[in-house]
């Protein structure tokens, strides 16, 4: 019998080029089979962390048709060993603070845990994660976060403002519901709770209230269940809701910060200033928790206005000095050397993303289902190079349409309306015209003020005013 080989389907350079050109979510297979981090099961991590306390977020499993934001969850610090005893229902075992929660009614999640902080006294563990094999030289576990959860543990649907994500599934399975940036209006974006790097959806995408959010019917859900050893790429500004579907799940997330354009930087500063100013005001309906637990404290109004002014000035200066014929502005690194603009390179050098048995596009209207045959993790934990014929048959069996009506070919995204997540199309438009008087709350007002369209318009007005052209501004 021929010995198995450890050949990766893509080199670091090829992987990075693929990521630079991917415009939709995709799953990489057979890229991580030699990574030691695949041994990081919850049981293994319990032994590594010992008596170290980890903060867990807990939420009820009940269906409410509304997102369960982090501000509405309970939080407990416990050992991973106590967490495991609780999940396994060990009678008489030490479960620490989990004793207050019924495992049948609650899920628990140790999320956003920076590996650099968890294992600061065991830095050798950073090398177990090898993001350098995706073309990010020197990147490992130090720049990653750890996520440990029970079945039902989830993060509310949101988009990340600044960057993209690479996610490695280590133990158990997680189901990802992804929506393209063009569907933002159909996801009803909100900035409360506030988190600078994220915008949340007001819709519970699994059990949507279509009377309150009728436009969600037109959202295009891209669903994939990520298996151990697989890596999911989530492009910037793609909405995502994530839920654990197995009793125990462990995953590693590398958030790759991307440079924001000047207009986006101003918009972020404007939204932050408005939210902090209004939510800091005292009123009867303004006492809710609005600052996400992952956010670092409150900034004063003066500090926020400084950020607005700095962002506007930087944008104005760049526009004044940029040659109008330059479609790609020059950017320099910290040493003053001109940096290559990947967007410009992308436009000048045509590139076809090599979708196939090792790179699978996540399409809409169907759940991406990868069989045991496609998993990275095998008993030998080695990659094997199959024949071309086997690869073709493998690729053809990967994507399974929900209803048999839609096919995903060449990695192209389907664009039909979303018929998943408990939503139905049985309701006629008349059902949503029922008028019901309700009191407008502070959060209602704030949601309108920081709506993306409004913030974008305010951003343009501020820039025009700063550059002296506000007299020519067209009325809203």
From TrEMBL:
<dbReference type="InterPro" id="IPR003347">
    <property type="entry name" value="JmjC_dom"/>
</dbReference>
<keyword id="KW-0963">Cytoplasm</keyword>
<dbReference type="InterPro" id="IPR041667">
    <property type="entry name" value="Cupin_8"/>
</dbReference>
<protein>
    <recommendedName>
        <fullName>JmjC domain-containing protein</fullName>
    </recommendedName>
</protein>
<feature type="compositionally biased region" description="Basic and acidic residues">
    <location>
        <begin position="389"/>
        <end position="408"/>
    </location>
</feature>
<dbReference type="GO" id="GO:0005737">
    <property type="term" value="C:cytoplasm"/>
</dbReference>
<comment type="function">
    <text>May play a role in cellular stress response.</text>
</comment>
<dbReference type="Pfam" id="PF13621">
    <property type="entry name" value="Cupin_8"/>
</dbReference>
<feature type="domain" description="JmjC">
    <location>
        <begin position="111"/>
        <end position="271"/>
    </location>
</feature>
<feature type="region of interest" description="Disordered">
    <location>
        <begin position="379"/>
        <end position="413"/>
    </location>
</feature>
């Amino acid at each position: 019998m021929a010995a198995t080989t450890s050949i990766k389907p893509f080199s670091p350079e090829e992987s990075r080029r693929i990521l630079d050109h991917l415009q939709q979510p995709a799953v990489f297979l057979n890229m991580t089979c030699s990574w030691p981090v695949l041994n990081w099961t919850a049981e293994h991590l319990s032994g590594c962390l010992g008596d170290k306390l980890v903060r867990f977020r807990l939420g009820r499993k009940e269906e409410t048709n509304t997102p369960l934001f982090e501000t509405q969850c309970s939080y407990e610090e416990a050992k991973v060993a106590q967490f495991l005893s609780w999940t396994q229902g060990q009678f008489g075992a030490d479960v620490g603070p989990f004793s207050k929660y019924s495992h049948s009614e609650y899920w628990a999640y140790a999320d956003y845990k920076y590996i650099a902080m968890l294992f600061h006294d065991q830095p050798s563990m950073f090398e177990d994660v090898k993001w350098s094999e995706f073309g990010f030289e020197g990147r490992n576990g130090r720049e990653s976060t750890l996520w440990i959860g029970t079945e039902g543990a989830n993060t509310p649907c949101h988009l990340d403002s600044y960057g993209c994500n690479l996610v490695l599934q280590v133990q158990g399975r997680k189901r990802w519901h992804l929506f393209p940036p063009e569907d933002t209006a159909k996801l009803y974006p909100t900035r409360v709770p506030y988190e600078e790097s994220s915008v949340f959806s007001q819709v519970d995408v699994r059990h949507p209230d279509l009377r309150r959010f009728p436009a969600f019917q037109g959202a295009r859900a891209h669903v994939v269940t990520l298996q151990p050893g697989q890596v999911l790429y989530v492009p910037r500004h793609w909405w995502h809701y994530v839920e654990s579907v197995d009793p125990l799940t462990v995953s590693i997330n590398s958030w790759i910060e991307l440079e924001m354009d000047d207009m986006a930087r101003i918009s972020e500063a404007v939204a932050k200033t408005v939210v902090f100013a209004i939510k800091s005001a005292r009123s009867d309906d303004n006492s809710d928790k609005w600052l996400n637990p992952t956010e670092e404290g409150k900034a004063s109004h003066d500090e926020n206005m400084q950020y607005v002014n700095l962002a506007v000035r930087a944008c104005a200066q760049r526009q004044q000095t940029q040659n109008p014929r330059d479609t790609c502005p020059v950017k320099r690194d910290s040493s003053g050397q001109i940096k290559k603009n990947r967007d410009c390179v992308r436009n000048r050098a045509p590139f076809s993303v090599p979708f196939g048995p090792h790179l699978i596009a996540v399409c809409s209207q169907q759940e991406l289902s990868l069989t045991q045959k496609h998993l990275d993790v095998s008993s030998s934990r080695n990659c094997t190079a199959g024949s071309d014929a086997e690869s073709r048959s493998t690729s053809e069996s990967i994507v399974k349409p929900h209803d048999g009506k839609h096919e995903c070919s060449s990695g192209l995204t389907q664009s039909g309306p979303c018929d998943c997540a408990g939503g139905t199309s049985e309701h006629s438009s008349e059902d949503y015209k029922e008028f019901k008087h309700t009191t407008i709350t502070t959060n209602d007002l704030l949601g309108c003020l920081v709506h993306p369209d409004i913030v974008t318009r305010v951003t343009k007005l501020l820039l025009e005013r700063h550059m002296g052209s506000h007299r020519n501004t067209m009325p809203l």
